[in-house]
Amino acid sequence: MLTDTFDPLKGLRLEILDASGGARTDLDPRLAADDLRRMYKLMVLTRAADGKALKLQRQGRMGTFASSLGHEACQIGSAFPLRPDDWFFPYFRDLGTCLARGYPLALYYHTWMGNEAGLRPPEGINVFPFAIPVASQIVHAVGAGLGARLLKKDLVIACSFGDGATSEGDFHEAMNFAGVYATPTVFVCYNNQWAISTPRSRQTSSPTLAQKAVSYGFPGIVADGNDVLAVYAAVSEAVDRARAGKGPTLIEAQTYRMGHHTTSDDATKYRDPAELAEWERKDPIPRFQAYLSAKGLWDPSFERSTIEEAEAAVEKAVAEAESRPPASPEDVFAYTFKEMPPDLAGQLAELKSGLPGGER
Known about the structure:
Number of strands: 7
Structural class: alpha/beta
Largest sheet: 5 strands, parallel
Number of domains: 2
Strand content: 5-15%
CATH class of the largest domain: Alpha Beta
Distance between the termini: 59 Å
Order of helices and strands: HHHEHHHEHEEEEHEHHHHH
Number of helices: 13
CATH topology of the largest domain: Rossmann fold
């Protein structure tokens, strides 16, 4: 078991790819060529979509946006081990995971453009609306896991959050509940070193975040979050463990927030440029590219086609998102309950009656 071999209490971290893309043969998951290429394409698409969102925000075509730059390995590596019927509870910095789970990019963009309708996934895409309040989705994920167990459904519930979430009460309540009830939950913490302007060193004196799982009675593991294979391997084992009824696992994927906290933030005010430069040298995409190249799965022609496909998909998603109808009053009320309760229906009617022109 990886959680036994890489004990966070001993300061050990799971790494499969080295800085130049070489792989440890004893830990390489040996994924099929098509899966490896798909992983890479999703990482490239995530970065292209992220960069486009920043431009849209600067042009006034999108609201505040939380960049995933540098998180591609965490996100794609976390999504790949899940089955389509499993559920994923994202936080606000989870573009790549949503894309890997099949969530339409146009809907993701539409949400950040200010329309709640973008949070409604198509039927069969088991991605919960991403959470803006820090750590609230962790509690929801544990509740979903308990529900799946009570209903005897063969499901795994995964959720993601940043290192800042581990300083919230919701995190600790969720961990405790998950441990007591052995819920089939996989917790993935993207430790990107910063909770807005608060560095990791000021959030906890615990040497790792993963070791916090031990006090709640289940395993934790630290993985190199810029190594997509390490994240994949850690999450795969956690998924298998949860599906076998052995309870939750906490994975700390150590990465870096290469962009600002959001487009409303200026990280240059509190972050050392040398620190950013150091982490830019650990960029997860070139690292995985080197691994694929050594296996004969990457060449300049593949790179060109991958970039062209990503750019085309991004432009198509932008056009679709900007052509969708504007938000309506019903969007505020429509997606919480299967059937709208009478009190909410009354509130909606009251809201409509107060709009210009009366009820719409």
